[in-house]
Amino acid sequence: MMKKELIDNIENIFSSKMFECETESGETLMCSINEAFDEFHENGHNCLGCNLQDQAGLISSFLSSADSYYSEIHFFTVYNMLLYLLTERILEIKKIIGLPQGYKENDFSVFREIKLWANFLKHPKAFILTHHPRYVFEGELLPEEIAGIKKYIQLDYLKKYYSGEDKNKYKVLVRELRNNENVVVELPNLERLTNEFCEACRVFINVIKENKAYKEILNDLTTLENFYEDYEI
Predict the structure, then answer these.
(1) For residue 214, is it within any domain?
(2) In whole angstroms, how far apart are CA 50 and each of 36, 203, 216?
(3) Widest CA span of the chain, in angstroms?
(4) Does a structural domain hold residue 94?
(5) Beta pairing partners, 183
(6) How many structural domains does the chain have?
(7) What is the pLDDT along the chain (233 residues), one digit of tens a residue?
(8) Residue-number span of the structural domain to which 91 is assigned
(9) Residue 140 maps to a domain
């Protein structure tokens, strides 16, 4: 059963780090990316902050109304998929600016974790052949409890079987999971995941704001000049 206290803690973490953080302009974390483009224009409008903030706002809206979620996996499914939508937008920007693969790898590892869980949720593969799998959060089971489980699915398992398509691995997955009624899925600790996600977002925003080359690339692609000259309130 999903605990209200846990949902409240997640909402507080997300709100404090994404909406109440201190930025030079006093904006939310995502909107503060606009600071990177002030030097290029006075009346232009850059779309990145708005597009990223829309997704952050969607996550915030979900968390503020998530008390009705009784099941851990139902809550996690929606929450992780919303984090994934924002993650994909950040990864697209990384691709556009040509951010080297492996750069800030430790800081951005949570994006890969979220994407792996999203792959598992979207493409369950042979997991759909299991019978009433049990869901627990990271750290809830003792080693001796884990040892008694026929199949224990956690992040390393996802890295092995859900990071791409491999016919041989798929055959193994079918043998391991079909008609299996002793399967436990260890979901990530949501407070940790939320903290790491927000911190990765902060690092990403700062990478853009502190690199002139990235700012120039994105300014050319994402700014409408003189946007506010004819803007009527």
Answers:
(1) yes
(2) 14, 18, 18
(3) 68
(4) yes
(5) 151
(6) 1
(7) 688 999 999 999 999 999 987 666 678 999 988 887 776 666 557 788 889 999 999 999 999 999 888 899 999 999 999 999 999 999 999 999 998 888 888 999 999 999 999 999 999 999 999 999 999 999 999 899 999 999 999 999 999 999 988 999 999 999 999 999 999 999 999 999 999 999 999 999 999 999 989 888 888 887 765 444 454 54
(8) 4-122+189-224
(9) no
- CB crowding 9-38: b at 16 or more within 10 Å, else e: ebbebbbebbbebebeeebbbbbbbbbbbe
DSSP 138: T
Model confidence pLDDT, tens digit, residues 204-216:
999 999 998 988 8
The token duo for 143 is 């080693």
Tokens coding 189: 């600790």
- What is the pTM assigned to this prediction? 0.91
Is residue 116 a part of any domain in this protein? yes
Q: For 11, how many CA atoms within 13 A lie in the half-sphere containing its CB?
A: 16
Q: Quick one: CA dihedral 27, 29, 30, 34, positive or negative?
A: positive
* SS3 label, residue 111: helix
